[in-house]
Structure formats: structure tokens, C-alpha cells
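Budget justification note: compute hours in this period were largely spent on complex prediction jobs such as the one shown. Inputs:
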Amino acid sequence: MASLDSKIPEGSLSDKWTNHKSHINLVSPANKRLIDVIVVGTGLAGASAAATLAELGYNVKAFCFQDSPRRAHSIAAQGGINAAKNYQGDGDSTYRLFYDTIKGGDYRSREANVHRLAEVSTNIIDQCVAQGVPFARDYGGLLDNRSFGGVLVSRTFYAKGQTGQQLLLGAYSAMNRQIGRGKIKMYNRHEMMDLVIVDGKARGIIARNLVTGQIERHGAHAVVVASGGYGNVFFLSTNAMGSNVSAGWKIHQKGAHFANPCFTQIHPTCIPVSGDHQSKLTLMSESLRNDGRIWVPKNLEDVKAIREGRLKPTDLKEEDRDYYLERRYPAFGNLVPRDVASRAAKERCDAGFGVNKTGEAVYLDFASAIVRYGKEQAHVKGLDEKDSVLVKKLGQDVVRSKYGNLFQMYEKIVDQNPYEMPMMIYPAVHYTMGGVWVDYNLMTSIPGCYAIGEANFSDHGANRLGASALMQGLADGYFVLPYTIGDYLSNDIRTGPIPTNTPEFDAAENTVKDKINLFLTNKGKNSVDHYHKKLGKIMWDKCGMSRNAKGLKEAMSEIKALREDFYENVNVPGTDSEFNEQLAKAGRVADFLELGELFAKDALERTESCGGHFREESQTPEGEAMRDDENFTFVSAWEYKGEPADAVLHKEELNYEEIEVKTRSYK
Amino acid sequence: MNLTLKIWRQANTSAQGKMQTYPIENVSPDMSFLEMMDVLNEQLINKGIDPVAFDHDCREGICGMCSMYINGEAHGPDRLVTTCQLHMRKFKDGETITIEPFRANAFPVVKDLAVDRSAFDRIQHAGGFVSVNTSGNTQDANAIPINKHDADNAFDAATCIGCGACVASCKNASAMLFVSAKVSQYALLPQGKVEAADRVLNMVKQMDEEGFGNCTNTGACEVECPKGISLENIARMNREYLVASAKG
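Corresponding output:
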């Protein structure tokens, strides 16, 4: 049995990382040239890791399935990135960022990892600015900040509504410099198909060239998986169409434990589903909750009138509106954490107050912010603050400068002007806190195989706070992995290049080829998407925003049956020697069909409610989530045993030395 | 809505391509253009016809992967959107829609509507970066204040998504808008100024080697750019290039 030693260093929490860095083994510059590292995925974590490892002198091979590393889905992150810079002088500190992240994660993340994350957060901003990332600035030329859900300080750095894009382009530029120097060999339009283990260590991968279909062998001294999250197991999510779990799942099949698969984040502010043809959901940044107020009508007659088009939301008087977050959580109001905001929206919609035809939408209203900003601007410019037309125009200009691209995106999709009409939003699957289990060094339970960024599990517990995903991806890639991997690779300075003409590579390649043949010769009657959509519906209905034992048991057996049907009846057109998107997708959906069942099993096992995992059997009389610290203060790490139902649970107990575990309250 | 689609089909880079016609029924005006393509592909698969290959990923207008040339315009008739954010409400019932790949010598067709834009990556390898190692010891992010006007202009240039619509729209298949956006972003920021001269010379050299055409200031690129990248960037790059060449 693989061990579950988290390898947390000795010493006080605030000294652990510094001491650890000072005491781990290093690889000399001359020896780094002799060592090869594979990085799978080029989002924030993968790109920053690849660039930094190459700068250090390692030979890096980087892989992405897109046509360029710049297109990885980190690019779609909108709102911002947290860092404990305390530029606003509002009392922020490393400790406060650490504390907020642990609390926001509902006390299910590893204390030492989160403290390290908070420590390096400030370095990230310095590094990105040095790279030329154009963060938002104020008129004095200094960096601007805003506030995000679940915190009481302004520590979020941003670049309008495209922070993810600008940070990824920064990491991509760092990669480009190393590609130009020949230190990174980039493999675009390639997919990792399997991990190769030699003598118990990760020693390479089997990859497929998605354009020619060619199967390739790549040897290396270590393999880093940075392949993102698995939200697409729900079919509809805010992930990109190609986002998948396959790299993470392949290493799980080869011995890496998979941790907390049921911890999924359902993001409260997404554009509602418009019809059956829907292929994905679009997120509207959480930053909108800084200025937007969320409400539904107080009276069901008004809801009916709105749905039938007899009443416009703007016609509804203040006293007829229910600003339910402000009502239920006065301290945090519209800026409660994501899990709380999502469940509150579901509660109102389930009670019949949803404001669109499907009954699954609430309002996000900017009218008061527009007036507030407009009056401020009028005052600054010495204009008439009582001129409501002028105030509205000035206010709209301010909102446009803050959120312009988000408003434009909303208007294009929904065909309504959000400057005039409140936006309609509804929760959607967004981020997965669960992922491959890693120790403090970010190594999985397979020696030499690492997982970083959203692909691992360690920093966000049961719920991630806004603007923390970008922080974690870059922390892992720029500032953690490049140090910790050296400790492992210091044993490989005499190993020499990893040969790929070995039985281990033969076996892995044959498994991959057999699977491809199986898909292509099946000639069934249903498309790959047919199965993906069915899986998504089971996941959303039974493993979504709230779960119960009965539904989860049904989900497990339904997914198993669907998986069997898939292998019998799936139809994958075309051949293996061409650009064949259906074939690539078939492999990804096959893995989702296994992960989905493990997800349900994990959710079934955890009978408490915590963070993004709400078990109906475990709630307070007011309907708030009720944690069970006595029985569930642990990480569920699942060991692969073939069928997902047979996976074996290992527990990593979570010990909180610095923080008192409390009931999370945002009231 | 019922539509007729005329789509470019080409098996691979070296194969000969041709237009094929497919009817499609019951298209909802709320669908995105790519969702309409999904429906078409599902129908083709069920009929045993090879589905149409096209690039796409984020479907939020930001990754720059989608790339169709629709009715003679890159990303179709709407402005400031990529194909994934184009909605069928922009078309009329009964309309015939022509769909081609982004065409340029430097963008060879991979299959059907998917093209190879790795030339863009190679231009970036030549100089699209600031030479700073990851150390955690760079100076504090607020050590150099940057005038908001310059910071905002640098941001506007940096919003380029690298989709290639500028190249596809240009009668010369010029990549000047794309290259100038990156050159401008760094030229406007103090962090990028140190290497500005080498950067512009190297990136322009690579651009020429990739086989992109010259700029004749028709401005089609700016009109079709889904991110509204301004022609001013080309002017700025020309200035940078002249100054750098003179220093030579």
C-alpha cells in the first residue's frame, strides 16, 4: 500500500517553509543540464513551472492539447489574484490571508500548505509586474486592489475582467523565452495518454499527437501533471470544452491517490442555461458582487408577472425586493463565500422565486452602484448631483471602466443591456477543490510524479475563495515545485537519459493503442456526447449543489451502468491517423465515467456538510451547512483498485496547530 | 430557423479541399454559432459522415482558439466577438452561410476549418517577453509607479488573444496588428523598455520569415479584431522599429 505521509516539515508554522527550503537537497547547475522533466498542461501552474524549471537549467518538455500554450483555460479567469501585500493599509497580513483561506475552505485544507501559499503570495505580484503584466493602477500610478467574497480586506489584484489572461500571458512569455533558448521543447496539440513507471518511479509518458494520431514515447526523470480540474464531469460547467481529468486519472490508475473528489465549487454568478443545445456555461466574475446586489421579488405574484413579461424588474419598488444575501448575512452581505451564495440562490429558486422562464435565475443589479458612482463623479467634477440623467451616465462610465468586458459578454450572450436591466445569474460548476493527493512537496503517491495547480487537492479544502486559484497555480509553479523537485532529482544526477525502448514503455504504449482500437472498431449507435450529457445530468441532479445518501447510491449504480453501455455502444467515427476530435473526446469521457462514480462514492462516505459539499442529512434548523469535525477532519485519499466502487479509502488526518476550528459564520 | 451551410472540407494539410453543402433545421436563435456546429456534427455522426473539424475551447471569447471565416468575415458579421460568442440571432431564417478557415500562407489548414497558427508562437519566441528570471526577489511591485494612461494603453494592447483574425482579414495576410500589440504592451511599460529595440527587430524579422505579408494600412484588421486592438499599435511599432534600426 502506498504511504500517506504528508511530509510536513517540523517547526513552527511560520518557519516551516523557510527551514524546509534551507535544508532540502539541491542539484548543481552543471547537473541540472543532465536532468529531464516533463510538464503536462500549460495553464498558470504548468506554464510557470515549465518556465522556472528551464530557467534553473533543467531540460523541460511541455505538453498541451491546445494549439498553443497560451490558450489553457486559466486564461478565462476574470476577477483577480490575492496577495497579502497590504497596499491598502486595511490590516492585511500573511496570517490573515492564511486564516481566511483556511476558514473559507471550511477547515478541510492542510495548514502548512496554506501558510506557505500565503507567504509566497506577495512574491507572485512582484514577479508578474517585473514580467510586464499590466495590472490595474490608480491615478497615482500604483497598483489597485478590490475585495472578493469571504474576506474583509481589499487584497485582490486585477487586470479589468481578464486577470487570468494577463497572468497566463505573463507565464507564457516566460516560457517563450525558454523555448527560444531551447530549454523548453514545446509539444502543442499533444495529449498525455499514460504514465510510464520504471522501478517504482515515474519515468515518462505516452503522448498522442492530435494532428497526426502518432503515439509517442517521452522519457524523463520526473513528470509534473498540471492538467487542471475535472468540472467537465458535469458536462455543463464553466470549464473549456477540452478541459479534462485524463492526465490526473491516468496517474491515479497507476497508483496516485485521488483526494476529496466530491469537493466541487458551484459558482454563484454564471449566466443561466438557455436551452438543450447549451454546450457550456459562462461565468460572470465574482468581482461583480462588489457592486452588484443580488435579489429576487418578495412576492410570488411579481415573480409570475416577470416570467410572463407583464412586469419589468426595474419597475419593482425597493420594498417589494428581497435582497436575500443582505438579509441573511448582514456582516458579509453580497460578498459571502461562493458556496454560501450558491446555496442561497438555489434555496430561493427552489421556493419558486426564480425570475426567468426556467425558474433558475436571480437578479444581480447594478442600479444602486451606478447612482453611487455617478454622484461621486458629479461631485468630483463639480457638476449637478441632482441631475439624475447625468448621474446615471457618469455612473455607467465608472461601471464600464471596471467591468466593461463582462457587461459586453453578458449582452452578447443574453441579448439584454445590463447597464439598464439587472443581470440574471444562476450557480454553475466552476472549480474542483479535489484532485490528485500530494504531499508537502507536491509529489503524488508515485515517486517522481508531481501534481500542481487545480490538478492537486491541497490548498482550498472544501471551498475555494475567489481570486485564490490564480494565486495557487502560480505559487505552485513559480515558487514551490521548482524548489521541492530538486530534493527528489538530486538522486538522479548519475542516472543518465531515460531510455524509452524498454518493456515498461512497450506495455504502456500497447495499452494506449488497444484502447484506441477498441473505440474505433466499436461502431456503436451513440455519439460520445450522448454519454457525456447523460453523465452530466446524473452528476448535476444527484451530486450537485445538495446531496443525499439515496441519490448518491443511485448515482453510483447509474454511472456504472452508463459506463458499461458506453463501452458497448459508443460510436467513434474516423481513424487513428488523422485529426480526430471525437476520438480524443472518447478517451476523456471514458475517464470521466470512472471519476464520476468515485465522486459519488466519496460524497456518500462524507456524511457531513462542508464547503461545496452539502449533505441534506447534515444541516442546522435554519438550513445552514453543518460540519462534523469529530468524524470528518480528514482528507479522503482514494487508492485505485480497478472498479471505482472498489477504491480503498485512506485518511490523512488534518491537525490544526495555529487555528481554532470554528463554525463558519458570515452573519 | 432553417439554414443552408456551405463548409470548407479538407482532409489534411496536403489534401485538396472543397466546399460542401449541408442543410440544418431547427436552429434556435439563442444558440452560439459553435453550438449550431455541434448540432450539425451530431447529425453528421449519426448519418455516418465525418464531422467537421474546427478549433474551439473556452467558448467565452478569450482563449483565441476558434477561428472561422463566416460569410467573408473573420468571426462572422458581429463586431468585437469571437465565433464562439457569435449568436444565431444575427442570421435570418432560410439564410445560406458560408464557412471557411482563416486563410493565409502562414496558417496552413490542419483539417477542415482548423488551421495551424504556430507561426504566431514562433514570433513570440523571438522576443515577446521581458528577460526576468523567477526569483521572488524582484523589487516590490509598487517600486515603479506607472502613469495610469500608459498602464491602460499597455493593458489594451495586451488584450490581444492571438486568434489570427487580423491576418485572415488582411488582403496581404499581414500579422502587423498581432505583432504590434505585443511590442506596444512592453514598449509602454518601464519593465519592457530595456529590451525594446532588440525585441521589435527580432519579432519583425521572425514575422517576415514566417511569410506574413506587408501592411498597407487598409485597417481591415482593426475592424475585424474581436478585442478591438487599435491601429495605433502599428504606428507605435513602426516608430519603435525605425528608432531601433537607426541605432542599429
